[in-house]
TrEMBL record:
Keyword annotations of the record: Membrane, Transmembrane, Transmembrane helix
Lineage: Bacteria, Pseudomonadati, Pseudomonadota, Alphaproteobacteria, Rhodobacterales
Record-given protein name: DUF1468 domain-containing protein
Transmembrane segment boundaries: 38-56, 77-108, 114-140
Any Pfam family the entry gives: TctB
Domain of life: Bacteria
Transmembrane among keywords: yes
Domain DUF1468 per the UniProt entry, residue ranges: 6-136
Transmembrane helix found in the keyword field: yes
């Protein structure tokens, strides 16, 4: 019970810090009506609500995952951090396919299905972000694009 309350407090504090950071985002006079601050603010509010819920009503007997699960979570954090650094030099498709396949493999260790998942997710997200949402993504490394 105490561990849930401590974790809820940490989540709430981090969400407030994230919200403060979202308020610091500079907006241009040419930005859309919603602006670039709204999505980070929504994430912060959801995080704050989750943290407060854990403070208000903690689990009586929380069941913590075993060590191998913690190791998978740590590896996932490392993979996602590397993903953030791979996006600029390698474009969107290659890093997203690799990361999605890697995380899929950690969830269910089936190499063929993980590879198919990575490729499909990469292409699907690229089409969604690039064409449906109009984001300026680069598909492949600039050296390959010419």
């Amino acid at each position: 019970m105490a561990s849930d309350r401590i974790f809820g407090l940490v989540v709430a504090i981090l969400a407030l810090a994230y919200l403060a950071g979202a308020f610091q985002i500079q907006t241009s006079f040419l930005s859309d009506p919603v602006g670039p601050r709204v999505f980070p603010m929504m994430i912060a509010v959801v995080g704050l609500l989750c943290g407060l819920a854990m403070l208000w009503k903690p689990d009586a007997e929380p069941e913590w995952p075993p060590l191998p699960v913690w190791m998978k979570m740590a590896l996932t954090v490392v993979i996602l951090t590397l993903y953030a650094y791979m996006l600029a030099p390698l474009g969107f498709l290659i890093p997203t396919a690799l990361v999605a396949a890697g995380v899929s493999y950690m969830i269910a260790p089936q190499p063929a299905k993980a590879a198919i998942t990575g490729i499909c997710l990469s292409v699907g997200l690229f089409v969604l972000f690039k064409y449906a949402l109009g984001l300026g993504l680069v598909a492949l490394p600039r050296a390959l694009m010419g």
